[in-house]
Amino acid sequence: MLSALLRTDISTAVRYNYTVFGKTANADFSYSNEEYHVSPEIIIVGLYADYINNVKLTVTTETGESETVSLTIDTSEMDYGNVPLKLTVNIFD
């Protein structure tokens, strides 16, 4: 499985959960973090190689306010040799 590191700049403490949508509905991967952190670094695992991965990310504050964003993480045309990968992440409201 591939993963991506999502660095955030969120000034309040949040917890998060995400779903990486699989190639079939039975292949979706979901993860939830129940601890609250300011500006968490989120490791998104379960990505497909050579694929445009769709991810739904929800962050929730300690007061219960939440926001959901859709991400696309494009791993197509990557060289999976011994070189660092360059990923493109697009966030849509």
Provide key terms for this protein.
single chain; 93 residues; mainly beta; five-stranded antiparallel sheet; two-stranded antiparallel sheet; 0% helix
Q: How is this structure best described in words?
A:
This protein has 93 residues and is mainly β. The protein is 0% helix and 60% strand. A five-stranded antiparallel sheet has the order 3-2-5-6-7, with no helix packed on it. The chain is globular. The mean pLDDT is 89.
Describe the secondary-structure layout.
Blueprint: E1 2-7, E2 13-21, E3 29-38, E4 41-47, E5 52-61, E6 66-74, E7 88-92
Antiparallel strand pairs: 1-4, 2-3, 2-5, 5-6, 6-7
Low-confidence stretches: none
Taking the sheet with the most strands, its summary is: 5 strands, antiparallel
Secondary-structure element order, N to C? EEEEEEE
Estimated radius of gyration:
14 Å
Q: Looking across the biggest beta sheet, what order are the strands in?
A: 3-2-5-6-7
Shape: globular
Overall average pLDDT: 89
Strand content: over 45%
Question: What would you call the quaternary organization?
Answer: single chain
